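Morning - magnesium ion inputs below, output right after.
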Amino acid sequence: MTVMTHSEALVEAIRECMDEDPNVALVWGSLMGVGGNNDHVQHIKTDFADRIFHPPISEAAIAAIATGAAMDGVRTIFPMGTASFMFRAWDQIIHEAGAAHYMSNGAVSVPAVFHVVHGLRGGGSVQHSQSPQSMLWNAPGIEIAMPSCPADAKGLMRTAIKSNNPTVFIDHQKLNKRSGEVPDGPYDIPFGVADVKREGKDVTIVAASLQVVHALEAAEALAENGIEPEIVDLRSLVPLDEGAILRSVGKTGRLLVVDEAPPRCSVASEIVATVAEKGMDLLKTPPVRLNRMPVHVPANVALEDFVGPNTDRIIEVVKQLCD
Amino acid sequence: MADKERFLDIFRHMILIRRFEEAVFDFHEQKLFGGHYHLYIGQEATGAAVMASLGDNDRIFSTHRNHGHLIARGVDPKNALAEILNRADGTNGGRGGTFHLADASVGMPHTSALVGGAVPLAAGAGFAAKLQKSGGIGVSMFGDGCFEEGVVFETLNLARMWELPVIFVCENNTPGAVLKSAGGNNTSNLPEGRVMQIPQALGMECHEVDGGDADAVDLLFADCAARVRETGQPVFIEALTERWPGNYFSFPSMVTGVTRVSMAWDGGSISGEYEDWFREHDPVLRFARQLIVGGVATFGDIAGIDVEVTETIEAAKEFALSSPLPGTDSVHSHVLAGEG
Ligand SMILES: Cc1ncc(C[n+]2csc(CCOP(=O)(O)OP(=O)(O)O)c2C)c(N)n1
Ligand SMILES: [Mg+2]
């Protein structure tokens, strides 16, 4: 095990995959914000100079170039930065990358990775705070990964690069600098396998990305009040591990889903709908969604925190749910 | 230099922007607002001179680097500074912050922090002016990086096809920037040639100007604005400014210090790493020198304007700091029109 930041774990995964496969290419902005004194960054920069492409501010064209290259087997990783910027490339990701396999009747696949950073970041205001996961989930043909910790980030990134589908890899601004233990050497974490990050018996909290961190913090406080939440970290939305969610709800009988997208048609809505369809009889109480409020994100950091789900609000909602 | 009042007014706005941006830097150092931000230092001449030829019916759209455009347009620095601190008395009620300063009451309805986002909006204002025969024009203030976004090309083409009264002011601050290949962050990357060749290829009237020379920008822009009002045809202006050394990475850094206007006449006091900047490029100092040499103002006039402006900014700081934060209830208002 080595302790490293979320971003460093991603860079390690990218380095390993570029080492393993000469068909992996990289569009190099500032690589996950990891500085040049990092061994992996240095290695990627010097040893793979011919597979790195410097991006102008052209999200749409680059997304489609990555898609076109992927059709010929070049696995292009495109870190797009702030998730809000990917809206410029919406058409290319949804209609070209996401549809090519279907439209070709299975003859063509698009092994490209679009990496974005979503969420409430502390002063991102309206146009730098988007959480596009639920909008993306509404589009067929795209895998969506949303890790919550460095170890998962690495294993999921390796899977994203090797996957024959286009993957949108969604990280969170506030996860980037968080550290955690990462197993040494290469390992893949398959998509569609949720991880129970904390065992509990009283309530199931389903979350992904930064909200898993918030849920874990909330669980500490709740445990002191005699409430034991079980935390299911989805890790990927597409494919979705329905079994893990239903198993946990079967155990606790209560469900809270925490999600940074606004509530209507959100990730939380989808999980609640799935449980309603397939596990209504498992629920002792009505399920609850905790989302960002259905408003834009104000610039002020205190108000930003107010509109988003956070640790305190999870505690509050779980207490009501278990009352 | 014929019109003394006009020049002094442009200079007053330039030094006001400079003092304003120094205050913003100071506030960020004190962690009084979150996130990253952008300063207009080094580009004051362009904004101040452009606004001198615009009237009430004109509409101006800006970017992430918007502070100077609002101040030049006449927005009270109190409200602009309050917005940057996300306070209730800010131009946007505190909800926009540094990226999004705008003020519909002075014809600046919306500021986009997405690269290229504001360019078509200004063409839309030209479209409305044409339909409504308001006599106004649309003005887009935008960075050289915008030429990397496809929507900018689409807009230039449309402005020509539909004959829209718009002036596209590209503020190219890449000259003098450390290139990305050397670890810096220049903002435009064309394999060769100039951004201006793109509107030229569409047959648009194009001009280049030294964006650090307030007099030159004023002359050119006044002429273009009059013609656009007359003909209804779009014009493109590339204002080239030397990159301010403090505009290096995501966060500005005050490497050139708080500006001493006396450097304009006391050349002997200039030394150090940024000597060239102070002597050749700083637009505030350049214009002060021009005014003095041209007999428009004396040292005393310049120093006097600076004192006045500094007091204005001190009062604005106090105002902004004492303005309340918007209440939590405010987050729900104005999602849709008609809901309050
Ligand atoms: C669509 C989009 N992509 C990326 C960014 C991130 N970004 C912010 S400013 C900037 C550079 C802009 O350069 P330029 O337009 O020349 O303006 P300058 O900052 O030089 O004034 C970039 C890439 C963004 N805001 N929007
Ligand atoms: Mg620029």
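Note: Chain B has a mean pLDDT of 95.

O.
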